Amino acid sequence: MTAARILREGLDFGEGPRWRDGRLWFSDFYRHAVYTLDESGQDEQQVLAVPGQPSGLGWLPDGSLLVVSMLDRKVLKLIPGGSEAQEYADLSGLADYHANDLVTDAEGGAYVGNFGYDLHEDIRTREIPVILADEVTGVTRLARIAPDGSVSSAAEGMRFPNGMVLIDEGRTLVVAETTGLRLTAFDVTADGGLSNRRVWASTAEQMVAPDGICADPQGGVWVSAALGNAVVRYAEGGEVTGMVETSQIAYACALGGSDGRTLFVMTAPSSDPHEVDGRGLGRIEVATV
């Protein structure tokens, strides 16, 4: 097991990290903005204020930035060089609760997950094992935004669809089903549709509730363990092939850096806004993998 080191402190709740153009891009839920940092964790710059609480990030082929606005269940678009985002897609007809993570494909399409229901309120009233055993509450769908901006359901019956990654040169979409304790894979059709749904890896044996995920060039998927202080690497089929220990709960991760081997991890003591909103307890931690 590798131990991460703290790169930066003072976030409220970091999410959606992405490495692009030599910088780390990320959302901070409760500072209500998207930021970038250099590789050393310095030179923080605010890219965009998002009053509706930002989460997943992605880019269209023309370089436009897409940002999930969680509370109003929309996706915003910021054109290159722009200062104000415009509404790109309205997910309120498909997202049953807060919109969440996002991934874009090479053709300009995007997939967006959502909470499904108020998980934080559920955690205040029920024990975690009871929630995880409940296969009905919070079941929702994965949304697809086509390159023309139209919205449709890509997959039904998802349990808290969260972090996503496209692998196999975009032919396979892997989705973290947080309360389902699994990574679910789909074949991606030419028009962006999803088929051949299957379990890519079960995370139940390790009690890893998969949150944000990222893939490495060797075909492994790094999984932020939202119930623990770790990021766990899985191979297809479910074998655990690596682990990075963090100082607090790991909620999202991205692979990048100048060497392409730096794992950036967004951590916090909790995801409950009552415990972290405005408190500056969030961190970015890093490890070489």
TrEMBL record:
Transmembrane segments: none
InterPro entries named among the record's database cross-references: 6-blade_b-propeller_TolB-like (IPR011042), SGL (IPR013658), SMP-30 (IPR005511), SMP-30/CGR1_Lactonase (IPR051262)
Keywords annotated in UniProt: Hydrolase
Domain SMP-30/Gluconolactonase/LRE-like region: 13-268
Domain of life the protein comes from: Bacteria
Family stated for the protein in its record: Belongs to the SMP-30/CGR1 family.
PANTHER family to which the protein is assigned, alphabetical: LACTONASE DRP35, LIPOPROTEIN-RELATED
Annotated protein name in UniProt: SMP-30/gluconolactonase/LRE family protein
